[in-house]
Amino acid sequence: MRAEDGSRRCSSEGTIAPMMASNIVDFELGAGTDRAVRRALANLERRQGEDGAWAGAYGGPMFLLPMYLALCHAAKRPPSETQRARIIAYFERAQNEDGSVGVHAEDTHGSLFCSVLAYVALRMLEVPKDDARVRRMLAFIHRHGSPLAAAQWAKVTLSLVGLYRWDGLTPLLPELWLLPYAATPFHPARLWCHCRQVYLPMSWLYGRRARIDDDELIRALRDELYDGAWSSIDWSAHRDTVAQVDAYRPPSRLLALANAAQRAVERITPDRVRAMALGKVREHIAYEDEVTNFIDIGPVNKVLNAFVAFFDDPKSEAFERAFATCESYLFDNELGTMMQGYNSSKLWDVAFATQAIVATPLGDEHRTMLERAYGYVRDNQILDDVPRRKRFYRDASRGGWPFSNRAHGWPITDCTAEGLKCALALEGRFAPRIPEPLLRDAVMLILDWQNDDGGWATYEKRRGGAWLEKLNPSQVFGDIMVDYSYVECTSACMQALRASLPRFGRRLAARARRAIAKGERFLRNAQRPDGSFEGSWGVCFTYGTWFGVTGLLAAGVPTSDRAIRSACDFLLAYQRSDGGWGEEGDSCRERRYIPSDTAGVVQTSWALSTLVRAQHPNRQAKARAAKLLVDRQESDGSWAREPLVGVFNKTCLIDYDNYRHYFPLWALSEFAREERAR
Length: 678
Prior knowledge:
The protein contains 25 helices and six strands. By secondary structure, it is mainly α. It has two domains: 24-58 and 344-676, Glycosyltransferase (Alpha/alpha barrel); 64-339, Glycosyltransferase (Alpha/alpha barrel), CATH 1.50.10. It has a two-stranded antiparallel sheet with strand order 1-2. A two-stranded antiparallel ribbon has the order 3-4. InterPro entries: SQ_cyclase_C, SQ_cyclase_N, Squalene_cyclase, Terpenoid_cyclase/PrenylTrfase.
């Protein structure tokens, strides 16, 4: 673990060493930031696509490509030679010295889960078993207990291609979907939508004991992975076996009891009930495919739904569409070909880039760029609710915005909030404009999404109790069972509601004010004693504190408020001697601030923006941060690639590559505006 020496931490009063003060005075704040802002705007304009969006990598998770390649092997549709070489290159970059592959592309904690899947993937890509890369990987796998000790998702994937036995898995009963929702506190529809949409196809595949026919490679891989012991393995003895490297959330006692109960139920379940359950689950899977244009909510259920279509009928149109849309998740850049965590991050990036541009005084000079961005926001708002939504446990959608594009179809609270902020900020400047009823629908959707605790979750209102997390079967991820209220989502929704107050009349404004007040209480309760806010979708306390402070300010909290001041003091305590901030991704896993060896421009941007918005009086601290951003800028107006700063479910970092192109611009623009007002 790379951690900066604790002696570098200091209070906001003592952040700047006296010998550096003269350097700050000499720094040409106006000229430096102006040049940087102009170059950053030019860089964004060059990178913008014809559709108004900014394409960028959203990769990082190392279990996605192997699942897709398992599907390719099952369907006998291998990737092209070009793709094959680029995928191998991506795996090679992610492999650690000990031969392992982590949960994400920069993970130095070796993961048996991802190492097993990566090994199988490389062999399916025709990398020979005596290749040095796979030899080192296999050695790591054997040292940590073989696939018998891998996390659940690896065992499911291996079972589909005949490299594990379904008897070696804890039950994934499709019959749970037959239970009445209202009377069942553990009904699958109460789970976070990403979780339930993954376990939905898993339960169908488990219920069918789906498995491809053996072939020469599969037989060879059995010998390699299990060191020749395949035929003598007692699979049922390894249902709960998990290696320490995969045991971020080891099985709880409640999960063990639930699994035992499910095994007992499965033994007495009549075949006709199993058939009825499989039919109901298949109906839900088909619905998810239909309402998302076969894109599905994410890459894991995308691949698993495609497996379902394959085992249901490999010659069907459903499988053809399911397999073809897997391509929408593939992305190639200088690192190789990866599989992204979504079909794109375009709406999210457009929303932030637009706000960064608007924060500058130069928007009129880049009118075409703004017009295209507004067009993307306008054209990707969701126009209608999905049909029969209550039957399939879906919330309203009309007026919302997705993370990627309208075709994907799942609206998200913070994406809707950021989209609405852009729509309101640019309203009337470009035609055609977003119709008034759709803007109002966005506000209503945000209001209806608010949880009883005052916060906002991601896709839906919270449906289940926190106790459901004790039933988390994944072993490698945290907080996957329930759609909790989050600091980031809450802040974004509060900001959007604040922006809407003068727009939609007194009655709606009064309801929005009440929601904002409840959001303020949530944020105050979420703030830690040290003043920080924990981020759940970015690394980590730097990100969360940016959102936490901005949300409180949106609620009308004065900058003199203790919550604002303590949050700023927290950030200033971690400002580095070079003026920047750098936080390790392990902060998310360990839930404590872990300084990194070097500052990052994105995290520095979040911290600088927080201090500026909070009107913190330490001008020198802000100037030093701005100087770092200016000095790190490349000649073309961009900033260099840095370690991953996105995260989900505590353990898996993810790449928001476009962050480095607009967050420094945004922070410098805010800083420059504050300096001009002095």
